[in-house]
Design brief:
Elements: H1 3-28, H2 31-38, H3 43-77, H4 85-96, E1 100-102, E2 110-112, H5 114-141, H6 143-162, H7 171-192, E3 198-200, E4 210-212, H8 215-272, E5 273-274, H9 286-300, H10 304-332, H11 334-356, H12 364-374, E6 379-380, H13 381-395, H14 399-413
Parallel strand pairs: 5-6
Antiparallel strand pairs: 1-2, 3-4
Amino acid sequence: MEAAEADARLAWLDAEMAAVETSLLALRDHPGRRLLTGAELTGDTRTRWEDADRLLARLWGWHCTGRATLERAQAVRALRRTPGRGELVELTELLTGACLTVEEPGAAPERLGWEQLVARTNVGYADVLEVVLAVDAVWSALPARVELLTAELRRIAELARSVGVVRGEHPAADVLAGVSAELTELRARATGDPLALWRPVGGSSEPGGGRVDTSGFDRAERAVEDARREVEDVITVHRDADERLAQVRDVLSRADRTLAEARTARGEVLAKIAAWEVPHVRGSVAALQERLATAVTHRRARRWARLAPLLADLEHRADEELFLAREALTAVTAPLAVRAELRGRLDAYRAKAARLGSGAVESAPLYDAARRTLWSAPCNLRTAEQLVRTYQEATLRPSAAAERDTEVAGGEAG
């Protein structure tokens, strides 16, 4: 090795040793490594950190070995401006030979060259950094969020107890108890065995390539949110129960009156209309009124947790019953609406015929026949509909055609 080659090699190795020392110092000062040093770890995290901590100690040892050898070579080079042959031989051995002795657990000491030492140091550093970054990512993502969610759960649980939402009587209380146990377990895992919640990303060559598994926390968060809404529903019932019960009572009363009106109307329709299907009126609010009485009992006994779901269902069912009652009234009175519409059309055609002077006299018998049918009781709606149509057509035809229609109409009226 020539002097220039030795100088270039010394400069490269000095830069490599400085970079390794900078990386090791950064790793030593990393917040995740500091927390790991004094943490009470369990499971796979404990095993991997113990291995990583021992590896980190070896990395420092390898670095010290390399630095000492490099300083020895630098001392040899500094002896003379132009090194002699013996010095160049020694520099060649120190800078390019297998002059670095390293030890691995359970193995005999090895002698490595500089490239081998640098490569092994880089691999070991990446392994330690992977553990530190993964643990730090989990600790940054989960424990604080678990604490906040646990505090929110306690707040909701206190509200729940204040309105009678207790275990065994309301599902929200059972959910809160279950989530509390899950969060306790999740907190213990996140702090003691954080690597159990780390999911490496396949194919990533960079340390720390992966993601924190927050699925358990996300489920707990959704469950707490659902329970919060249920408890707030109970609190709302506690505040608005009297008003909402009165509203349900009013809606059921209107539905009952509408059903009674529909039944009465059906009887009148059957007496006034013939040849037309009139649907039966089905439905009753009796069952809902019984449930309303149960809700009132819960209100008086201040059983808010039981009242909340019952009242919400009653509100929905009462509105539905009123809608169905109105639909029934519309259905049974439809024939009367058809008759009224036919009467209006008949008079409108007559007025039009008089205004246009088109067959008004000739079609008069058709008008009389349709009018007698529409104003008779019971009214045959199908016949009336046909007569109105025939009268409409006759008012638009020449008088000869109207005479033929008059004869036909006279035969139908007879």
